[in-house]
Amino acid sequence: MRNLLRFLALGLALLGAVAAHAAQPTSIRAILITASNDKAESDPRLKPYEAELQRNLVFSSFRFVNESSAPIPANGRSTLQLADGHALELEVEKGGGVRVRVVWTHRGAAMMTTSLPLRAGAPAVLVRRGGKDDNVPVVLVFAR
Amino acid sequence: MNCTRAQTSICAARDAALPPAEAAELSAHLNGCAECRAFKTTLENGLARWRAETAAVAVPDAELEWRAVRRRIQAESQRGAFGLPEAWLRPLRWAALPLGAAAAAAVVFFASPDRKPAAERSADVASAQPVTVEVPGDASAMVMVDDRSGWVFVVASDPRPRDL
Question: How far is CA B10 from the centre of its chain?
Fold first, then answer.
């Protein structure tokens, strides 16, 4: 009897915590930048990210274009409009972590569709390289 | 008699009287060996301290202690969950099992990391790095995770020129 009541109390407490967590929307923030191999001064708005970008990508310089963010409910969708016709259609799945399905379009044309896990403080970096490494669009996607 | 044998004899003398010949030999050795005298003194002091400390320890009466434990067990068993009287909890008894089961089922449902169709779920589980990428046309894609920062990089390369 005592164990049953303890089990009940534990179950209800867990249920409350999980339901509250699942109900919280995830804030998704996206930064559009362009990358190139031209020598250029670093953009102060990209200072927190520049070292990781330069270490992992082959480009010499990065230029901030614009950014956008939106709260997205668990298992919900939203679209972030970025500059120059770039848009991200986002779908958030919340469970053990945050998993985001991203459909990146440019002036209506598909650039990339990806589904990936996002951790707080560790963005996903989406890059679409063309034939020449000049003004390559790069999108940083953050979850909070 | 050397020091090793003398110190063995010193220890043995604590348990029982030494044979007269050995006792005489030990006595003669101790007269001429300061190290063995110090060993004997240290041993005697240690034993004296051990006797004093063990004499000071109060050993509880086992019978009285057992009765006290039984009293505590009986008092505990008359109390219900969370220290509440059993009579207060009796009305909840009928609801405990179904509510507990319902709560557990709800927790499993809400806490499930993946509520997608079975086919998609198995594809994720099968993949060591669950990042999927689709790119149009003849572009190719590459995924990498920086092990230092944890950042995920998804790079699609298109052979055709593409402007922002």
Answer: 43
- Rounded CA gap, B147 and A74, in Å? 28
pTM of the model: 0.52
d(CA A40, CA A86): 24
Domain ranges of chain A: 25-143
Quote the domain boundaries for residue B13: 3-56
| Sequence-separated (6 or more) residues with CB below 8 Å from residue A61 | A35, A36, A37, A38, A39, A40, A41, A42
**Whether residue B76 sits in one domain with residue B33:** no
Question: Is position B143 within any domain?
Answer: yes
DSSP state for residue A122 in the 8-state scheme = B
The reply to whether B7 falls in a domain is yes
Model ipTM over 0.90: no
Is the residue at B88 inside a domain?
A: yes
Identify all chain A residues contacting B106, using CB atoms and an 8 Å cutoff: 11, 15, 19
Q: Do residue A128 and residue B131 have CB atoms under 8 angstroms apart?
A: no
CA A31 to chain B, closest CA, distance in angstroms equals 14
Q: How many domains does chain B have?
A: 3
Q: Divide the 144 residues of chain A into consecutive groups of 10 and give the mean pLDDT of each group.
A: 61 54 78 90 90 90 94 89 94 80 93 90 91 87 90
Residues B8 and B52 in one domain: yes
Q: Does B97 touch chain A (CB under 8 A)?
A: yes
Q: Are B7 and B52 members of one domain?
A: yes
Could you identify the residue written with the tokens 């403080």? A121
Within-domain flag for B107: no
Judge whether A109 is closer than 8 Å to chain B, CB to CB: yes
